[in-house]
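Can anyone check this?
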Amino acid sequence: MRILYIAASDPYASQRAQTLLDALLVAASFGAQVSLLFQGHGLLQLLPDQEAALIDRRSLSAQLDALPLFDVEAIYADRADAQRLHIDASSSRVDVQWLEPEAIASLIAAHDQVIRL
C-alpha cells in the first residue's frame, strides 16, 4: 500500500504537523511505502534553525532528520506554494524534490491513500 502524507499545517500553530509526522513514521516502521509532500504553511517545517523551545514547543527537526532512517526517501514540496510564501527552495533542511502543480496531481493519483494535515 502506498500512502501519501501531505504536510500542510504550520509546524507550531497546532499539533497537526507533529501528528502527521508521528503517523508517517509509524506507518513506515510497519513497512508501508510512504511519501511526504509539503504544501502551504507546511513548507515552514523545512526552514532551518527553528527554535521551537522559545514558544515552549517540541521541535520537529529530529523527526525530519529521522526520515531516511525509516526509508522515507520520497519527499516532495510544492514549488508554487514556496514561491507564494517567499520560501527559498535552497534553504530546506531536508532533501526534497520540488514539484509543479501538474506533477503534484500525478503524485496524488499514484497513491492508494492520501492523508492531509
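Reply from J.R.: I decoded it. The first strand starts at residue 2 and ends at 7.
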